[in-house]
Amino acid sequence: MFRTLGEHYRAFRRRRKLETLRSADAAALENQARPDAGRVLVLRHDSIGDYLLYRPWLRRLSEEVRKRGQHLTLLANAVWAPLARAWDADCFDELLVLDTGRFMTDLAYRHEVLHQIGSKGFGEIIYPLHVREPAVETFVQFLKAPVCIASEGSLRPGPEYQLLDAGFTLLLPSTPAVLFEYDRNREFFENWRRATGLATELPQPAPLQLPTSVQHAVQVAAGTPYIVLFPGASARRKRWPPRHFARLAQGLHQRYGSRYRLVLAGSPADARLAQEIAQAAGPTVPLENQCGQTDLPGLAALLAGARLLISNDTVAAHLAAQAGTPCLVLLMGENYGKFFPYPPALLRAPCRCLFPPSQEARFAQGDFSRPAHDPDIRLITPARVAAAAEELLG
């Protein structure tokens, strides 16, 4: 009973929030520039890993848009906008940066962003996300663009979602089954091409790779190879414990000594984790702490030059996989197949995933469905990781 009441209350709160945002969006977009058929807006407000698996399709979309004589504007999450500027500036004519969290909570900021979007006079809106976010997309229904295309996505049924869908002129079909995110983006692009009258035959997938500028930036100090340990992750439950990383570092140092430097990498927010690892590992284990010392392009270069990455389920694993660096990913496996494991056809180097024992048992039986409860990543032992790392290091 109490659970049902709680669910009803949360649903009520979501509806009220969407109503507030809808009213704010209507006011912010009351005065817009006349739609220009030559201007296309692509909305991508999701995470860095999502963007990395969308990049090949952004490039293809850009080619098609420019063949039609149109200009492309990319609305980018502020988290990965620096990568878009550094790596994909040739794909768009303009970049609009969105602080997604602030956009959903700060109405003044939201009004400012929407006023800027409305002043551009876009004639076509493309929203390729499969996991759509109602608190972000409510504004689309108030844009005057005559063409607004989105994926059917994974939105739940209900009147509020029907209202959101009504804001688009075309919803492209999406496979209900779990797809690797690269393939999900391919599905959207193929359906978009079909809807716009273009041929849908596309080449077979090729291994993903980062721009050549990343390889040019790789620097290996004194020629000594190194292993990168990446302890951070956006969600606490996805983080392998610092004490496990410390035991792993001890084992790697004992096994390889000075053959490999051990580098801790991450954002400034991961500095505390790095400090815990260093303290637990002890003064006899040399650890180079580079948390917060690199921007995203710099992190990509660091990983591209590594002999091995050992990481949680986070952006570092995607960067390494696409840089051709062997990597070992420690993850819960609750979204098996969506971001990891990578399909072999997309890899140029091994990318091995380790899951909690309960998940390994389910996968061995062919059960890849989402578990009823989050698996405990702490149950992946340092000994298992060390053995897998030794295999990858050869």
Oligomer class: single chain
What is the CATH architecture term of the largest domain? 3-Layer(aba) Sandwich
Gap from first CA to last CA? 57 Å
CATH class of the largest domain: Alpha Beta
Supply the CATH superfamily name of the largest domain. Glycogen Phosphorylase B
Number of separate strands: 12
Detail the poorly predicted runs.
Answer: none
Q: Give the overall shape, derived from the CA principal axes.
A: globular
* H and E string: HEHEHEHHEHEHEHHEHEHEHEHEEHH
What is Rg?
Answer: 23 Å
- What is the CATH fold-level name of the largest domain? Rossmann fold
The largest beta-sheet arranges its strands as 3-2-1-4-5-6
Overall tally of domains: 2
Largest sheet properties: 6 strands, parallel
Average pLDDT: 92
Percent range of helical residues: 40-55%
Number of helices: 15
Structural class: alpha/beta
Q: What amount of the residues lies in strands?
A: 15-25%
Quick overview of this protein structure:
Helix content is 43%, strand content 15%. With 394 residues, the chain is of the alpha/beta class. The protein has 2 domains: 26-195, Rossmann fold (3-Layer(aba) Sandwich); 212-393, 3-Layer(aba) Sandwich (Rossmann fold).
What's the helix and strand layout?
Blueprint: H1 2-28, E1 36-44, H2 48-67, E2 71-77, H3 81-87, E3 94-98, H4 100-105, H5 107-118, E4 122-127, H6 134-137, E5 147-151, H7 159-165, E6 170-172, H8 181-195, H9 212-217, E7 226-230, H10 242-256, E8 261-264, H11 271-281, E9 287-289, H12 296-304, E10 308-312, H13 315-323, E11 327-330, E12 351-354, H14 357-364, H15 382-393
Parallel strand pairs: 1-2, 1-4, 2-3, 4-5, 5-6, 7-8, 7-10, 8-9, 10-11, 11-12
